[in-house]
Specification:
Layout: H1 2-20, E1 28-36, H2 46-68, E2 70-78, H3 83-97, E3 101-104, H4 107-113, H5 117-120, E4 124-126, E5 141-143, H6 148-163, E6 170-176, H7 181-196, E7 201-208, H8 217-225, E8 230-233, H9 237-250, E9 256-258, H10 264-271, E10 281-284, H11 295-307, H12 315-338, H13 345-354, E11 356-358, E12 368-370, E13 383-390, E14 393-402
Parallel strand pairs: 1-2, 1-3, 3-4, 4-5, 6-7, 6-8, 8-9, 9-10
Antiparallel strand pairs: 10-13, 11-12, 13-14
Helix pairs in contact: 2-11, 2-12, 3-4, 6-7, 8-9, 9-10, 12-13
Length: about 400
Amino acid sequence: MQRNTFLKLTTVLATGLLLNAPAHAQTTTINVAAIADFAGPYASVMPQMQGGRLAVIEWWNKEVGSKLNVQIAVKTFDTRYDVAQTASLWPGIKAELKPVLVLGLGGPDAAALQQRLPDDKVPMLMGTAAYGFGWKPDQWVLNLRPTYPHEAAGFLEWFRATKLQDKRPVKVAIITSEATPAYADMAKGLQSYTKANPDKATFVEAIWTEVQPTDLTLPVRRLVNAGTDVIVIQTNTAQAVAAKRALQALGKNVPIMLSLHNGVVGSSKALGDPNGFADDFEVGAIADATEDDTAARKFYRMLQEKHGLKSGWNAMTIMGLGQSIVAVRAIEATLKAKGAGKVTGEAVRETLLASQFTSNDLMGVLPGMDFSNDAPFPTGTSKVNIATMKDGKVVRAAGDVTVPMVNKW
């Protein structure tokens, strides 16, 4: 009798403890798709960008998401930087993940999905500069930086002011390809800028070649003979390396202006010479990969120490950091405004268009971020950082250089 009473009392106490125990909120998982290229022209530098992406997601999950009972899950898809591959994989990606956001890689992704995403209600964030063919209102493909011609124009005006003693128009040529709409767009935009600003720049020639050319000696010889001051290559490391080898074969040293995804470190590595792109330049409206003790560099070191970031401190890693930090902040702001159950692609895009993220919000990786329906890139005053290479290291040539106005083309 006493034993039965004890069992009943134990059961009642246990039940009471269970009823009074604090309820653990269920963790919500929010899916993000990431597009990568581990087999195409960016295979040599993609791991750097990917490392930056994933480290930011892990940091946010541990430091922010855990307090909100939310985790962001990322699944990466290799599209080989190919329009057709991206287009063919997208329906399956959308059906499998139901992502609220896509981390895009480059021009093929924008070309393949620009018309699809408004119907699918999924925004795509690009770490690259923007494209002229996407410079339209109400876009769902959003770039963290202004167009490539905007960035090139900022560099050319700085180069003319600081490197040309007679301040004549700088003679500029571009090496690119018709293989992707984004590559072709770079030449069109640069030509448009030079035509509108003949007192600042003269367009020499566009060298149209393969995405991964083998030898550019003959066309580069033409550029040298024409007195070209700067060769712009905002495409990929393969074209940068081919151009550099051509200049070496000719015994000439014409400065090359690179973008961030094919910057001086990655291109030097692909060339097989750690100082191969000495005195050339990389340009982008985002934190540079110099050794300065910036907020972005401190964030990077924290990710190294606490969240397993293995990628080096270089332009590709910084692009991955920038892309993901905007993504997580947009998701975070949507969560706080609407609740975990209402974080959709459409809601995240609304947040991106309505919010003004500061440099502190973005850990110093970007100067800030503001979008509008008028343009798929930041609408505030853009600034570019210009870096060069000395003794195998990236050093700042100029910071916060004003980006001039560039007309639509």
